[in-house]
Write a structure and sequence with these properties.
The protein has a 7-stranded mixed beta sheet with strand order 1-3-2-4-5-6-7, with helices on both faces. A 6-stranded parallel beta sheet has the order 10-9-8-11-12-13, sandwiched between helices. Helix 1 (35-49) packs across helix 14 (365-385), helix 7 packs across helix 12 (331-343) and helix 10 packs across helix 13. By secondary structure, the protein is an alpha/beta fold. It contains 14 helices and 13 strands.
Length: 387
């Protein structure tokens, strides 16, 4: 059976979409502690608050601690889509986190007259970074991705730069920019986690993907500029987790906590000197920017961030003076930024306060969910006018 997210709407909330059905297809399993879990969960909560009935379809990779292999993922893509195709009654909307494996479901939606919304968080080359063996298939994968985009009635993406890149391929589909955000009911200033009490540390939280800058973080810890009293705490799972665990085994300044329950993350963030979002240049889409969930969640907890100089995150930091922007692939710049904040904890705390106020004011998930739902309903209305 599909994972049906229960309706948690409350009396008095908007219910203009009551009774409308949406199927949400996500091939990146929503494990707690990863950005995909937060994004999917918060958007679904927002849809349900507005009266939508939502069914989430995601593959089952089991409960192992290691990321599933490529072949295990591919095998798992079919059963989840077959469950989707047996949905009754047929949904009004199919919402897809863009993925080439979704092509059969997009064709099914077209045959059934279902409106299609695709969420695009990066370019086609991201899969090649996660699975280098796919490099020979890159032209074929890009072709499938373009075909998928042509089947979309509406597209939601996270930066203006990505919107510009998508426009020639989406062929008339409406494209809406909805950045990431933070659940301000969960992420806010408060008590830090007891397991790290008394320790000085900076923290990375998120999927350990090849573009997240893990090499930069691990190299920075070993430099003389890095404060000796400060540890690097790594929280999350992904293909590069073995690299993080190996570093932790060799260097006492590195702590790898692995994946954690979503509700544990705020406490870990609150005790940090800073949160890190230091993506590297391995991702060809870096020029199109990032909307890193970890940036908003860290700031919401009243903690400053250190980010690399990419669109989508540098503006948040610069506009609100809530952290430090550094060049990508530069361990020395990262070590120096950590040292600067450690030596000026009062100034760091003030940066965190400014960041927290900015998230509450402009970047809550409630606001992001409302923007997403407005885009979905606008796309449906536009589609109806042309049927």
């Amino acid at each position: 059976m599909p994972n049906v997210v229960q309706d948690d709407s409350r009396p008095g909330e908007p219910a203009g979409s009551a009774g409308r059905r949406l199927s949400y297809l996500c091939f990146q399993v929503t494990r707690q502690g990863q950005a995909s879990h937060a994004h999917v969960t918060e958007i679904i909560r927002g849809l349900e608050r507005r009266g939508w009935q939502v069914s989430l379809f995601e593959p089952d990779y089991g409960t192992g601690s290691q990321a599933p292999s490529l072949w295990r993922r591919i095998i798992s893509y079919w059963p989840v889509q077959m469950r989707l195709w047996r949905t009754s009654p047929v949904p009004e909307v199919l919402y897809v986190r863009a993925h080439p494996a979704a092509l059969p479901s997009l064709m099914w939606a077209r045959l059934k007259g279902i409106a299609v919304i695709q969420e695009v968080n990066g370019t086609f080359d991201d899969l090649r970074l996660i699975y280098p063996r796919l490099w020979p298939l890159s032209p074929f994968i890009r072709g499938i991705c373009r075909l998928c985009l042509r089947m979309a009635d509406g597209v939601i993406t996270v930066t203006s730069e990505l919107r510009q890149w998508l426009q020639p391929m989406a062929r008339g589909a409406s494209i809406t920019v909805v950045p990431n955000g933070a659940n301000t009911e969960l992420f806010h200033p408060g008590e830090p986690a007891r397991e790290l009490a008394g320790q000085r540390y900076v923290v990375f939280v998120g999927a350990m993907s090849p573009w997240q800058g893990l090499e930069t973080m691990l190299a920075a810890v070993s430099l003389p500029e890095w404060p000796r009293s400060v540890r690097l705490v790594l929280v999350g799972d992904g293909v590069e987790r073995p690299k993080a665990e190996a570093a932790a085994a060799l260097n006492g300044a590195v702590v790898c906590l692995g994946g954690r329950n979503y509700r544990e993350i705020p406490g870990i963030l609150r005790g940090a000197i800073a949160g890190l979002s230091v993506q590297n240049t391995r991702r060809q889409s870096q020029r199109f920017g990032f909307s890193a969930l970890k940036v908003f969640e860290t700031l919401a907890c009243g903690v400053p961030v250190i980010v690399t100089d990419f669109p989508g995150q540098r503006e948040v930091v610069i506009d609100n003076d809530c952290g430090i922007v550094i060049p990508p692939d530069n361990p020395r710049a990262l070590a120096s930024a950590v040292a600067r904040l450690t030596a000026n904890l009062g100034a760091a705390a003030e940066m965190g306060r400014r960041g927290s106020h900015a998230v509450v004011r402009e970047h809550s998930w409630q606001r992001r969910a409302d923007d997403t739902i407005d885009a979905i309903e606008s796309t449906i209305a536009e589609r109806a006018r042309h049927v």
